[in-house]
Amino acid sequence: MDDGRREDPGTRLGSWKGLVPLGVAAAAALFIGGSVDVVHRHQRAADKEHDAKPAAKAEQTEPAYIVGITEPGTALLVRDVESGANVGLPVAAPEGRRFQRVAAVKDGSYVVASYGDRKVTFQRLHLDDDGRPKNLKPMPKAVVPGASTAWSDLAVSPDGDHLAYVTYKGTRARVDVVSSSTGTHKVWTTKLRARVGSLSWSGTTLSFVWSPVGSEKHQVRTLDTNAAVGDLKVSKAVMTLPKGSSNAVLTRNGLVTGIQKNSQLTLQTFTLQGKPAKTLWTQKVKGSLTGLDIAHTGSGFMATATDLYAKDIAVPAQDLADAAW
Predict the structure, then answer these.
(1) Distance separating alpha carbons of residues 29 and 16, to the nearest angstrom
(2) 205: how many CB neighbours lie within 10 A of its CB?
(3) Which domains does the chain have, with CATH numbers?
(4) Which residues are 165's β-sheet partners?
(5) Most CB within 10 Å of its CB: which of 11, 24, 206, 310?
(6) What is the pLDDT along the chain (325 residues), one digit of tens a residue?
(7) Which string of DSSP letters, residue by residue, matches 187-219?
(8) DSSP secondary structure letter of residue 49
(9) Reduced DSSP (H G I as helix, E B as strand, rest coil) percent helix, strand, coil of the chain, to 5
């Protein structure tokens, strides 16, 4: 899973009008059923190749499932973390539309973004007790205008109400924060050419990684979403990420970032003053680190580097454009 997974944003159209019944979505997903079976066999074979310890040894508080968006945004899949197998049928995107991003919520649901007609809309996915997709409901008051691109990103606030999404005009970012319950909308923009990614929340503070175009430096910045709207320059610099790191998650106790050297990935904590604290885990990974997210349970972190990695866990994900844990 690298940034190339969302190239060709013009084909990723998607917004929802009304509830999409899972029965209809499942029927629409049958057209990819054969390919899904092939993917299953590939995943089982690939899973045996990982050096990670069995996921059953992971902490019980870590989620048992991940929700992913298939390439190129045509369906949602639920995948068992321990076995790497899919759970239930894929949930197909509406005709002519594409899923873009997915983020986990503390209550165990998932917010899914889709793009179309130059606007981003959102849906909430619930799973049943066995991890199968239960329902997918629209969030009609949450709408973000603009172009969703390969650089776009999504984060959901701890209360599950506020959604942060990044759209682009060329290489200039726009950060929208919208309330799904009231539709209240706040916007911050920039005239500088840079990527705004790795969004995460801590309370009402939104953190992001600022990566200027043409620069190898990645800076963690925080934005008080209660502050006045305007230019992103009102955000505050926290630290410049160390070499080999381009993703970070803000927590109540500091920052967590993934530092990669060759095929070795280390999850490292830092204080809010930018000082190294402790190492969470280290393991071998395939590909380059492209994402880092905290589990919705608040226990454990998931790193994306071709496949998905947590402590002693490796989940096949080469067929996924985005995933949440």
Answers:
(1) 17
(2) 16
(3) 3-324 (2.120.10.30)
(4) 154, 176
(5) 310
(6) 544 444 333 333 233 333 344 544 444 443 334 343 433 433 444 444 444 444 444 444 789 999 999 988 999 999 999 999 999 999 988 777 799 999 999 999 999 999 988 899 999 999 999 999 999 999 999 999 999 998 999 999 988 999 999 999 999 999 999 999 999 999 999 999 999 999 999 999 999 999 999 999 999 999 999 999 999 999 999 999 999 999 999 998 899 999 999 999 999 999 988 899 999 999 999 999 999 999 988 879 999 999 999 999 999 999 999 999 9
(7) EEE-SS-EEEEEEEEETTEEEEEEEETT----E
(8) H
(9) 15, 50, 40
- Which residue in the block uniquely carries the two structure tokens 């899923």? 99
Strands 133-145 and 154-156: what pairing?
unpaired
To which residue do tokens 């503390």 refer?
Answer: 106
Phi, psi dihedral angles at 138 (to 5 degrees): -70, 155
